[in-house]
Amino acid sequence: MRIISGELKGRRIKPPANNWPTRPTTDFAKEALYNILQHRIDFDGIKMLDLFGGAGNHSLECISRGCTDVTYVDLHRPCCQFVEKTTVDWGIADAITIRNMDVFAFLNMPASGYDFVFAGPPYALGQIDLIPDLIINRGFLNEDGFLVLEHDPSHDFIAHPRLSELRKYGQTHFSFFE
Length: 178
Fold this sequence. Notes:
The protein is of the alpha/beta class and 178 residues long. The protein has helices spanning 27-37, 57-64, 77-89, 103-106, 131-137, and strands at 47-51, 69-74, 96-100, 114-119, 141-151, 163-169, 172-177.
């Protein structure tokens, strides 16, 4: 994994363990996603939420592009510790709030609107289909905000009233909600 663009461009994200319960977005899919987003989002000054944050790939990419208000949520404590250490080492710790907790518990807390929400849940998670409505209906997405949900082909959001676009990169699908 690497940072694609911005101040931290080219830096590598190297989690310390090969057996983490994570599935990082491939560089190919991530680069395609951010090529789309760079034309829709001015990352300077936005508020970003990274759900199922894993190794921090999307949080770090957004910070590199100028976002100074990122909330990262992941249940796996070693992932949170890794992201915390990385942000301290890279001198960007003031741009991120790390929440070591279950994403669904986080989504049950009082909402704070975000301009960009990225959710990259485990593909086998049984509740993936609930995620867009939880985020949108509970006020986690600002009126002009974007939600991008990463999932595999076994999930279909075509009938969702807030779906604006679907992009497919092999087994990685990105559903865009507005």
